[in-house]
Input
Amino acid sequence: MVTIAAVQYPSVFLDIEGCLERAVELIKQAAVEGVNLLVFPEGWIPGYPLFIWGMVPSNNPGEFDQMYRRLFANSIDLSKDELAPIREAAREHGIVVVMCINERAGELSAGTLYNTAVTIDATGDILNVHRKVMPTNAERTVWGFGDGRGLNVVETAVGRVGVLLCWENFMPLARAAIYAQNVEIYCAPT
Output
């Protein structure tokens, strides 16, 4: 039997190092409790940018820009292996992790952030990187559109895992893409 847990613990908002340290501790704790698959909430590193829903950029340009700069500076660049501590914790504790991050794109546009879910196997290997295809409403002020390359179901130590982020779970074609790949464990972090 597979034991799955959803993290219901806050990140260290806009603090990449604090988030990584806290995530490693949560992975360790989950493993002690017998969890095989641990799913973190949407945008957990360095925190979901809740400020986008209460602040109109044109009405608060200085404050919004300051928050965005902090978000950008504390987001993960996967091309620099900044998830190495999470990968090592997954490997050390033999646990599959779905880590949701604000991703700073390194390969195409160094100025774009994506709302991204990274599936890490119990070996510590990154198996899939899924960028939210259609950020919702105000999310478009901070996140770019994903391109669909990550609409994959991957074979993990716990079975075939697929991930869609938040509102994507209401999109029939996104779900169809996951269903068509014989998903066994469907993760829907929000």
